[in-house]
Design a protein that fits this description.
Layout lengths: L1 H19 L8 H4 L4 E8 L4 H20 L3 E8 L14 H12 L3 E5 H6 L12 E3 L2 H10 L3 E5 L1
Parallel strand pairs: 1-2, 1-5, 2-3, 3-4
Helix pairs in contact: 3-4
Pfam family, one: DsrE
Protein name: DsrE family protein
Organism: Geoanaerobacter pelophilus
Length: about 160
């Protein structure tokens, strides 16, 4: 009789332990519940191409994830700081160019700060064509936040 109880306890412990360590599936439903669209502006200040490519992939995955969950994203990606030097045809690699083009086709807007380009000596004449030059990205951040865009800073 004691052996049966011991076996029952061992089985119960094993069953419970297995469920405690089960991998959760990713789920954004709670955050996106009730939304049919979402407006976001990414304030990008990455200084190197590897980080830029990582974040461009992240933006694309975010866009696709929202669409898959029935939410239409309205995305704007603005660049300021020394990373604006990366936005020229000569500085961008093929991966970054393709990601920017793909996102642009989805309706994502790209802006580069002319003020930052001047300060960090980046030539606006060589700006990648899918990126729009604006006078001051801080004005964009102010304007779009006042229009209901959530701001996310990427460093």
């Amino acid at each position: 009789m004691n052996l049966q109880r011991l076996l029952a306890v061992i089985i119960a412990v094993l069953v419970c332990t297995g469920s405690l360590y089960a991998v959760q599936k990713p789920d954004d439903r709670e955050a996106l519940a009730g939304l049919t669209s979402a407006k976001v502006i990414f304030d990008v200040r990455v200084p190197d191409l590897d980080k830029l490519n990582f974040n461009l992939n992240l933006f694309k995955e975010t866009y696709e994830g929202m669409v898959a969950q029935g939410v239409k994203p309205q995305m704007i990606i603005v660049f300021r700081g020394p990373g604006v030097r990366l936005l020229t045809n000569t500085a961008l690699d093929d991966e970054a160019k393709d990601l920017i083009r793909d996102l642009k086709k989805l309706g994502v807007r790209f802006e580069a700060c002319a003020l930052a380009m001047r300060v960090f000596k980046a030539d606006p004449e060589k700006l990648f064509p899918e990126v729009k030059l604006v006078a001051n990205v801080i004005n964009s951040l102010i304007g779009y936040q006042n229009k209901g865009y959530a701001m996310i800073t990427i460093n």
